[in-house]
Structure formats: C-alpha cells, structure tokens
C-alpha cells in the first residue's frame, strides 16, 4: 500500500534525524544514566545555541520591532490565580488506565493511533470504514468521556503494551501541584503557560506605558504540563519554553497602523469553512482574508503575517507551513477568532504557534476574582452626556431579610444588566415584589420594593472606561525547533559514493556555530594563523569552532556539516585562506585579514554567498573533500 510505504519512509527519515540530533548532542533524554523520564529532555551545546539564536531573533522580530514591554514572572503560581483563569477546573485531558498494571494513557491518543494504523496498514479496509475513521479523527476533540469510552469499546482497543483491558476515561488535571512555604497552607502550581503573569500585571504595565492603548507585553519562560503519556520527542514534553505576546487593544477598534506592511503576503490558509467542506488549505492574501471577514480583524491579521515572516526567516519551508482556523467546537466561548500556525513534519501537521483573539475574558476573570479593576480609559475631547443605570441595594432591608446571605444578594443585584434591571423596576412598581435568581445561592429569592432602588440618571462623562481585548500569539519554541531540524536535514553522497553524509542546512541566523577554522595540515605557522583568525572572529562576536586535529579535511568538513555550520575557513597559507560554503561546497580565496569581516557580513545576512563569489576569486580544491 502507498500509505504504508509513505509511513515507513517518514519513520526512517525521522529516525535518521533523531539519531543525528542525539549523537551530536543537540538534545538527549534527561537523567539518561537513570534510564530517563518520559517527556523531559536536556539541550546539549548545539541545541542550546540553536534555541538561543531562535529566541534572540524572536526578541528582535517582535519585542524590538513592536516596542513591546518584556516581563519575567515566576514559574510557581498561587492557586487563586489559576482558579480565576479556569485552569484549576478545566485544564484537563481524558485518561484511561491499564486495569491490571495501572499504566495511564490519553484516551484520544489511543483512538487516533488505532484509526491511523488501520488507514495506513490495513489493505482490506473498505471506503466506508476509512471515511468513518477519518471522521472520528476529525471530531476527537469534541467527544465527551462517555463517547470516547464507547469508541474504545467498539474498536476493541486495549493497553498498547500489555493488551490488558482499559478503564473508562476520566479527567486528569495537567498542572503540577505544589505548596508555597513550609506550612503547606498556600497551594500553588507550576504555571501551564506564561500568559497569566502578564494579565495580573496589566494595571502596572498600562501605567508604565503612559496609560495608552494599544500596547503589547511579552514573556519568554518555562511552562509545565504533566502530560499523561508524553511522546513524539520534543513535540510533547512536560517542561518546555514558551514565548508569548499579549497585545492589549480597544475592543471597539482592532485596526493596526502597520497592517499594510503585511497585507500583500500570500500563504497557505485553512479557513474553517474549507475544513468542514473537505477542501485543502489554499493560498490567500492576508489583506483579502481580513477584508472578506475570514480573519476577524486587522490586528489578528497583522500578527498572523508577522508569525509567517518569523517562521520562514528561521528556515521553515513555506510549502509545509499553513495557518488553520479553529473550528467552532475548538474555540473557547469567549474567543472572537483563533488560528494555529501548523508546520508539517514526519509526525504530520503540528500546531507550533497559536494566534487568538481572546476578547476581554482574562482581564474580566482576574478583575472579578481579585476585586482590582483591570481596565483602560479613553479621555474625551469634550465631556459627553450619558444616561447611566444606577442600582442601589438597601443593605439594611436586605440584611434583615437574608442575614448571612446578604452579601451574595447585593452582589447579584449590582451585577444585573440594563434589560433585567428595568424589567425588575417595572415589576416592583406594579406588584411591589419580584422573584429574583441568585446564582451563588442556587435559588430564587423574593425582592421587595424597599430593598432596592433602580433608576436612570443623566451624567456628564469625561472618559470611557472599558476592559481591553487581548490578541495573543503563543509560540511553542521546542516544537518550532524540532520542525526546523526536520526541514533543514538532508543527506548527500560522499565523494567516493560509498556513504551518505548528514547535513543540517540551517540558515546562518539560527546555525549553532557560524564557522569553523581548520589548518589544512598540522603545521605551527598555519596553527598560529588559525589562532589569529579565531581572535578576530571573537572580536566580531562570531561563534566558531577551531579544529587542529590531523584528521583529513574531508572528514572535518563532514563533521561540521552535520552540526549545520554554514562556513568553513581552511588555512592553507600564511597570507590567504579558503572559505567554503556548506550547501554548495564551493570555495573562494580571501586574505587572512579580511576573512572575519566577510564571515560576519554573510552570517548577519548583509550579503549572500553569491555576492561573495562575485567579489572574491574561486578556489578549486584538489584535496579529497567528502
């Protein structure tokens, strides 16, 4: 079957990438000498360098370009904060247990794996059954615990390792719980995202920004999710780096002054209508997407465009990058619109960046829980007259009637909307009393005319006070880096054709080491020139690796190609050197004193390799290269 062959080729490619990454210490399982812990990884020297370069470019592309306010908040978060945000009650996945061993699995993952296996490897599958499996995979996120349990039973799915029966699915909260301080009286959690630290600091950040909107705050930091059954390497882990932006904007004006800078960008988009009707992603100009209402507003569209530029500059293949709109069943009830930047790799399409218009949900939630108003104000040039609803509960009367429940009744009265309040006023005037539902009490109470005053007053207002909306691009840095590894990896035959050599074709922007310095042979004069070049590279702020071993030059090139080093300097005389390009393997000859500035120009993106080939003479090597 074609599908089975494709799946096998994907797995073989992935294995080649992962083996190279682990062998060259880009990343390895954490605590390896103790057999490791699933979902935890250590970045080695080249992995740290790639990650550092990606984050430096993120800061430059977003924080610097948009004049964002960067913050750094604690990983340990008090329970009250995450209770307000909804994480304590709702941040769950559905889990099943092996009934004999107690091993846990994610219910939706077991069903997804079963369906994929059947589609890829069952030669006798009917068209009807294949369509059913595809439909189940498409709606997995929407299935309840009972529905997932029914599917597991229907398909006869058992524990993957033991084939034992499984328990019914039940919710498992993904946050790591802890307690703050020795008494254990202050519960807390390791944060599952960095965003809440920004929301709770909104009031101070708004003041710092001169009480002006719009503005954006940004944060890079660790987040923690106690995944039920982590897998897929760096794609699903228990501790990871997030880079998040919270762009605060007036809900009545979501235009963006720089939208015209991205409006002509065209890339693969996958609107929800196309997903529902079974179509594929298509190229759409982001300007058209906003004009036609496919994307909700200009600010959201602007960030989608900026994310596209960020990912493609890093080296993500634009043909394997799409922006998929959330279906109605995926969207939070408060969200205005949500898009995911998905990158295709050997595991399929992987969500790497979420770009969401979260409306004013988060600031409202923290305002309600903390009692601190997280609001902004628009000052009017001239005062305007408005009609305001004024609800005044008579606390003495309410206290006599409801005693200990008085506070909850007062809060419920004050929280009434205009329509409900005016209906209550009319009923009280005609009947003298009204039945009123108090949600926090879970019952109706009788309100009499003497318990509350409801009227409309005309007032002059000098400003409009409102809760800002927030547009949130959230970047999973580990996922982006893993996809970048796959998109950059290729093999090529050695010169003799007897082996395949691995190459990471990183753009200089993210390459862990920018160049290598090789004396052609072990020779004191050449080694002194190599050290002189190394000092000038250090002064220019260029990362390099110097290799004075006696290994053949071809093997040294192959070793650094496997690390993704874009340029190699070979010292073969005391006055000039050769500079080799990793991908074309072509070389040019340059004076010793110029080589550091040429490397800097190319690795900083100011000039291309082609520019340098035009400027400097070509060098034709007679030594065996690869």
TrEMBL record:
Protein location: Cytoplasm
Lineage, broadest ranks: Eukaryota, Viridiplantae, Streptophyta, Embryophyta, Tracheophyta
Assigned EC number: 6.1.1.14
GO MF annotation, one: glycine-tRNA ligase activity
Domain named Aminoacyl-transfer RNA synthetases class-II family profile: residues: 15-508
Coiled coil (UniProt feature): none
Catalytic reaction list: tRNA(Gly) + glycine + ATP = glycyl-tRNA(Gly) + AMP + diphosphate
Similarity comment: Belongs to the class-II aminoacyl-tRNA synthetase family.
SUPFAM superfamilies in UniProt: Class II aaRS ABD-related, Class II aaRS and biotin synthetases
Primary site of residence: cytoplasm
Name assigned to this protein: glycine--tRNA ligase
CDD domains hit by this protein: GlyRS-like_core, GlyRS_anticodon
GO cellular component terms listed in the entry, alphabetical order: mitochondrion
Keywords, ordered alphabetically: Aminoacyl-tRNA synthetase, ATP-binding, Cytoplasm, Ligase, Nucleotide-binding, Protein biosynthesis, Transferase
Highest rank taxon of the organism: Eukaryota
Assembly with partners or alone: Homodimer.
Keyword Thylakoid on entry: no
Gene Ontology biological process terms, A to Z: mitochondrial glycyl-tRNA aminoacylation
Species name: Rhododendron griersonianum
Presence of the UniProt keyword DNA damage in the record: no
Gene3D superfamilies: 3.30.40.230, 3.30.720.200, Anticodon-binding domain, Bira Bifunctional Protein, Domain 2
């Amino acid at each position: 079957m074609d599908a089975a062959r494709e799946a096998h080729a994907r797995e073989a490619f992935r294995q080649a990438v992962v083996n190279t990454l682990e062998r060259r210490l880009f990343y390895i399982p954490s605590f390896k000498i103790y057999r490791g812990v699933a979902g935890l990884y250590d970045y080695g020297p080249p992995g740290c360098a790639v990650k550092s370069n990606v984050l430096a470019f993120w800061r430059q592309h977003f924080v610097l370009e948009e004049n964002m306010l960067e913050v750094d908040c604690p990983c340990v978060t008090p329970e009250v904060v995450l209770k307000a945000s909804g994480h304590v009650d709702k941040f769950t996945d559905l889990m099943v247990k092996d009934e004999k061993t107690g091993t846990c699995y994610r219910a939706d993952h077991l069903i997804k794996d079963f369906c994929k296996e059947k589609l890829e490897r069952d030669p006798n599958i009917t068209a009807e059954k294949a369509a059913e499996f595809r439909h189940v995979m498409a709606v997995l996120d929407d299935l309840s615990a009972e529905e997932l349990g029914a599917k597991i039973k229907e398909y006869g799915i058992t524990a993957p390792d033991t084939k034992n029966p499984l328990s019914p699915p039940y919710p498992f909260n993904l946050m790591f719980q802890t307690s703050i301080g020795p008494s254990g009286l202050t519960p807390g959690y390791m944060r599952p995202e960095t965003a809440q630290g920004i929301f709770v600091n909104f009031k101070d950040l708004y003041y710092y920004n001169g009480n002006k909107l719009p503005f954006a705050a940004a944060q890079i930091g660790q987040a923690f999710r106690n995944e039920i059954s982590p897998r897929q390497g760096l794609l699903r882990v228990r501790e990871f780096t997030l880079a998040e932006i919270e762009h605060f904007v007036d809900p009545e004006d979501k235009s963006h002054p720089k939208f015209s800078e991205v409006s002509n960008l065209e890339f693969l988009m996958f609107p929800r209508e196309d997903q529902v009707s079974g179509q594929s992603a298509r190229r759409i100009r982001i300007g058209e997407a906003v004009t036609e209402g496919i994307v909700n507003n200009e600010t959201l569209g602007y960030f989608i465009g900026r994310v596209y530029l960020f990912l493609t500059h890093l080296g993500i293949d634009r043909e394997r990058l799409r922006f998929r709109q959330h279906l109605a069943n995926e969207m939070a009830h408060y969200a205005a619109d949500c898009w995911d930047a998905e990158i295709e790799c050997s595991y399929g399409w992987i969500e790497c960046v979420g770009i969401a218009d979260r409306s004013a949900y988060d600031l409202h939630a923290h305002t309600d829980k903390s009692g601190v108003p997280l609001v902004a104000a628009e000052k009017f040039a001239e005062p305007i007259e408005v009609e305001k609803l004024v609800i005044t509960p008579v606390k003495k009367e309410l206290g006599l009637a409801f005693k200990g429940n008085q506070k909850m009744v007062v809060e419920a009265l004050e929280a009434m909307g205009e329509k409900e309040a005016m209906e209550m006023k009319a009923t009280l005037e005609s009947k003298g009393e009204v039945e009123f539902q108090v949600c926090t009490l879970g019952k109706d109470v009788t309100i009499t005319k003497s318990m509350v005053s409801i009227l409309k007053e005309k007032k002059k207002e000098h400003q409009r006070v409102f809760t800002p909306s927030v547009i949130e691009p959230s970047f999973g840095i580990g996922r982006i880096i893993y996809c970048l590894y796959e998109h950059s990896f290729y093999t090529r035959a050695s010169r003799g054709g007897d082996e395949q050599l691995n190459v990471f074709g990183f753009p200089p922007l993210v390459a862990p080491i920018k160049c290598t310095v090789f004396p052609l042979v072990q020779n004191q004069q050449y080694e002194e020139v190599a050290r002189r070049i190394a000092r000038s590279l250090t002064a220019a702020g260029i990362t390099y690796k110097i290799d004075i071993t006696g290994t053949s030059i071809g093997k040294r090139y192959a070793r650094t190609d496997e690390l993704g080093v874009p340029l190699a300097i070979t010292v073969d005389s005391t006055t000039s050197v050769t500079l080799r390009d990793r991908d074309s393997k072509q070389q040019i000859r340059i004076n010793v004193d110029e080589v550091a500035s040429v490397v800097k120009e190319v690795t900083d993106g100011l000039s291309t390799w082609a520019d340098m080939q035009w400027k400097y003479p070509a060098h034709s090597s007679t030594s065996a290269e690869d």
